[in-house]
Design goal:
The protein is an alpha+beta fold. The chain has 2 domains: 1-36, no CATH class; 46-107, no CATH class. Helices cover 21% and strands 16% of the residues. It has helices at residues 32-35, 46-55, 93-101; strands at 9-12, 19-22, 69-73, 88-92. A two-stranded antiparallel sheet has the order 1-2. The protein has a two-stranded antiparallel ribbon with strand order 3-4. It is elongated, with a radius of gyration of 17 Å. It starts with 8 loop residues before the first strand and ends in an 11-residue tail after the last helix.
């Protein structure tokens, strides 16, 4: 049985490194200077995504698949990443889901 839904956990702020407590990980503590760094971005347009897919040869940059492709942030927006093309890559949905759970891709030869 998992922890109760009302449980309080301790997390580390990605902006300042301070510990904070809460019910879920917001990535940032409640200090104004940290909280203001949260994701403030425009969504990627269809044409912009198409440019990234074209740049990457319409293939997953990890496994080479050519179906079910999406544009992925190498460094997540929540972790300080941006919508800059250098921070975007084409991944298949399978690799994108795996990436959500595993941060170290060095064994696959692809590092963010």
């Amino acid at each position: 049985m998992g922890a109760p839904s009302w449980a309080i956990y301790e997390f580390v702020c990605v902006a300042c490194g301070n510990k904070y407590r809460g019910h879920f990980n917001t990535k940032f503590c409640q200090r104004d200077e940290c909280w203001s760094r949260r994701a403030k971005r425009k969504s990627l347009t269809h044409n912009f995504k198409q440019d990234i897919l074209e740049r990457d040869g319409f293939a997953c940059q990890i496994c080479g698949a050519r179906r079910n492709l999406c544009v992925d942030h190498i460094v997540a927006i929540a972790n300080g990443g941006s919508n800059d093309p250098k921070n975007l890559q084409t991944l298949c949905r399978t690799c994108n889901m795996k990436k959500s759970y595993k941060r170290d891709w060095s064994h696959l030869g692809k590092t963010p």
